[in-house]
Amino acid sequence: MESVKRAGYVTIIGRPNVGKSTLMNHILGMKLAITSRKPQTTRKRMLTVYTEERGQIVFLDTPGIHKAKNKLGEYMDRAALNTLRDVDLILWIVEPSSFIGEGERAISKLLTDVNVPVILLINKTDTVKDREIPAVIEAYRALFGFERIIPISAKHNIGREELLTAVFSFLPYGEPFYDEETITDESERSIVSELIREQLLRNLSEEVPHGTAVEIESMKENKDRWVIDANIFCEKKSHKGMIIGKDGQMLKKIGVGARKEAEKLLDKKVMLRLWVKVKKDWRNDEKGIRSFGYRDQD
Ligand SMILES: Nc1nc2c(ncn2[C@@H]2O[C@H](COP(=O)(O)OP(=O)(O)OP(=O)(O)O)[C@@H](O)[C@H]2O)c(=O)[nH]1
Ligand SMILES: [Mg+2]
After folding, report:
1. Which residues have a Cβ under 8 Å from the Cβ of 146 and sit 6 or more positions away?
2. Which mutation among 12, 22, 77 tests ligand 1's pocket best, with the greatest number of atoms within 8 A of CB?
């Protein structure tokens, strides 16, 4: 008998900071991807799986598409663009503004070469008045031939059902790709390293966290708790001082924040030990970025 359920791959793309990871987490109903107010939070594409009666959506959350300034930035753009061809649907997320800048134009140009349906999501509608939204829709309608344009608020979970109904309607009928229990192909180890990076982004000022990378040195599960040792790498000695902070206060705050999030993820007590190291200019070094796991994915 042919399947009545649908299953397919959906990539979430857009400029940095528009709310891609927030949206993915809210659809899944759990926090898997890290988010922050700073652009370029997501560095690798992350695969997650949403399964319900209608079928299965395999989401790809991607790094924000931007003008790369270093090798890591080039990797991030590549990670986003590489998802475009092998999916059933593209979700392009934008800010709720009718001003269309160079960044948006560059993305729309890329999409014209890809033969995949595109839904535009106008996010953060909670930050503007309802009457401002039609102008945003008009501006984008003039830019590209979207299959749909849906205003949403990822943070306040507005538009989720309309979005899911639209997404399923573009997916082919077929069997699920993953079993029902699967929510991501990412390891717990990799998510924990991201949770530490999230605290770096949330607690440190502009330039410093962007030059950090986190490596889990060891992660062991005991009867009553996880014991995790992790290294935080930064680009400069002066940054190391800022990460540690006066009397170690900053590192303590980062550790407490990351531990709490890790405990939610692992559903068990966590002991987290952090060390800060310097790896000069690693973001411009091909070997350096690969050593932190920023390698091209399938
Ligand atoms: N007010 C409001 N803020 C939102 C909404 N969605 C996301 N944000 C905020 O926007 C910021 C960026 O969210 P992210 O989900 O990290 O954005 P992203 O597109 O994944 O960013 P990159 O990974 O850097 O490309 C965070 O501070 C979110 O809380 C929304 O619907 N309304
Ligand atoms: Mg993100």
Report:
1. 92, 118, 119, 120, 140
2. 22
Domain 6-169 = CATH 2.40.30.10 = no
| Structure confidence at residue 145 (pLDDT) | 97
Domain boundaries, the chain: 6-169, 188-291
pLDDT tens per residue across span 72-129: 999 999 999 999 999 999 999 999 999 999 999 999 999 999 999 999 999 999 999 9
Q: Which residues surround ligand 2, an ion (CB under 5 A)?
A: 20-21, 41-42
For the CA of 123, the nearest ligand: 1
Q: How far is CA 73 from CA 15, 17, 70, in A?
A: 13, 15, 5
CA of 24 to the centre of ligand 2 (A): 9
pLDDT digits (tens, 9 = 90+) for 53-63: 999 999 999 99
Closest ligand 1 atom number to CA of residue 37: 27
6-169 shares its CATH topology with 188-291: no
Please give the pLDDT value at position 1: 59
Distance 20 CA to ligand 1 centre (A): 7
Question: How is domain 188-291 classified at the CATH fold level?
Answer: GMP Synthetase; Chain A, domain 3 (3.30.300)
- Spacing, Cα 297 to ligand 2 middle (Å): 17
Tens of pLDDT along 221-259? 999 999 999 999 999 999 999 999 999 999 999 999 999
